[in-house]
Amino acid sequence: MKGNAIIRKMIESDIQHLSQGFINQGWPSREEILIRYFEEQESGEREVLVAEVEGAVAGYITILPSAKHGPFAEVYPELSDFNVFETFQNQGIGNLLMEEAEKRVKLVSDKVTLGVGLHSGYGPAQRLYIKRGYIPDGSGVWYRNQPLEMNATSQNNDDLVLYLSKEFE
Predict the structure, then answer these.
(1) Whole-prediction pTM
(2) Which residue of 45, 99, 121, 166 is 20 to 30 Å from 105, comparing CA positions?
(3) How big is the CA angle at 134 (ends 35 and 109), to the nearest 5 degrees?
């Protein structure tokens, strides 16, 4: 199916379609976040790439010109909020989104960064990032935007993150 996938910049009508995609897989609506992303794209603060397959939105990824959190904050661009809807997973769409995002970042930086959650819901993304050449930065696990000290307690939720980077040759 990935042969029919196109990657393009987000358009305003994607907000409703993407939000519905989350609802269809049992997640809460993300309409408010997606509206903010679109507004940030319009002002140049963020770029949002959408995967479309035969007229249906399949997922998206956002590009921040400068990371907002973690060890790369204000230093390198960051890929953020990467989602491929369950019905479109394992078809190469995530790779296509990553490929296009990396291509765009490579025009302005020799390195791209990202943070990935540690619970099993992030398993497919973790595997994809490693296969694409991302490596941990060495600062350890972060929790609620702070490095997590040894023996500290945390909750295995979306706030528990490992930061990775990839250098372009």
Answers:
(1) 0.93
(2) 121
(3) 65
Residue 139 CA to residue 69 CA, distance in Å, equals: 13
pLDDT tens digits, one per residue of 79-127: 999 999 999 999 999 999 999 999 999 999 999 999 999 999 899 999 9
Going from the C-alpha of 74 to that of each of 11, 65, 68, 104, 163, the distances in angstroms are: 27, 9, 6, 18, 14
Distances (CA, A) of 117 to 2, 150, 156, 168: 26, 18, 8, 23
pLDDT for the residue 169? 83
Distance CA 77, CA 66 (A): 4
Joined together, the tokens standing for residue 104 give: 């765009």
Query: Is the pLDDT score of 1 beyond 60?
Result: no
Name the nearest CA neighbour of 141 among 116, 113, 111, 165: 116
Helix (H, G, I), strand (E, B) or coil at 2: helix
C-alpha torsion 96→116→157→159, nearest 10: -120
Average pLDDT over the chain, rounded to an integer: 94
Torsion angle in degrees (nearest 10) through CA of 53, 17, 88, 107 = 70
The torsion angles phi and psi of 151, rounded to 5 degrees, stand at 70, 5
Nearest of 118, 120, 117, 114 to residue 134 by alpha carbon: 114
